[in-house]
Amino acid sequence: MAGRALILFAHGARAESWKAPFERLRGLAQARMPDVQVSLAFLELMEPRLPAEVARLAQQGVADITVVPVFLGQGGHVLRDLPLIADELRAAYPGMVIKVVGAVGEDPDVLNAMTDYCVAAAKS
What we know:
This protein has 124 residues and is an alpha/beta fold. The protein has a single domain, classed as Rossmann fold (3-Layer(aba) Sandwich). It is 45% helix and 19% strand. The protein has a four-stranded parallel β-sheet, with helices on both faces. It is globular and about 50 Å long. It comes from Massilia cavernae. GO terms for molecular function: lyase activity; metal ion binding. Pfam families: CbiX. Keywords: Lyase, Metal-binding.
């Protein structure tokens, strides 16, 4: 296996329009990392689900995947559900490195950007 991928992992929703900001984020990330496949995967209600996306990437020969939970905090889905799914995927694809990082909303730079937005909104 060769190649790297970044999976932006989100909850999913019934409204298809909910996916739009995640697709924009995926496009922005892909533009900054042309040598890495950047894709979306969802916990529920939308496709592809994370196992299906990892299977697709494995078929393409991807050996190294980083999963970024696009959640504001480390709730039950990030603390319990995602680690279980990741462990199952590691067992199913032992030759693949699958790294899961913390929720995007826990990052200080992301929090500062959100604070800047909130402060600017209050001033307008």
